[in-house]
TrEMBL record:
Protein name, as recorded: Rod shape-determining protein MreD
Family of the protein in this entry: Belongs to the MreD family.
UniProt keyword Kinase, yes or no: no
Subcellular location: Cell inner membrane; Cell membrane
Encoding gene (name): mreD
Amino acid sequence: MNRQRVALFWFSATVAVSLIAMLVPLPAVLQPFKPYWPALVLLYWALESGDRVSLGLAFAVGLFADLLDGVLLGEQALRLTALMFIALRFRSRLRFFPMWQQTLAVLALLLNDRILLLIVRTFAGEASPTLSWWFSPFVGAALWPFLFLLLDDLRIRLRIA
């Protein structure tokens, strides 16, 4: 395979694995700690290869995630589109942050995502979430350096631009 096909396959595979990871059931005790995998993977690709990720792609991945997860149609599409808009807008700055600042920026993006989710679910008539509902962005931010380094190492080994 040529390099462009390998790059497209690798990108598609990481997004698919993130969607599958989103569906993995966890015990009720661990459920609040489950990070939002599609957001983390799309955020990585937005920072490392901004031309590969667009708002339309984020919306399409979000709609597919909505169908897989069985939530309100458009909920995750809105969340991922908003997250990618901010990430792509500040991509040139975020790319060159030291890892600890990048992790804080990812935490801010994930907290913004949770606030947007809270607004959508409030308008949908759901009850207010518990305090443990807010743990997920912190777990996602804590996993960010490891996910970033893992995906970056694999991207470099496969020589994907």
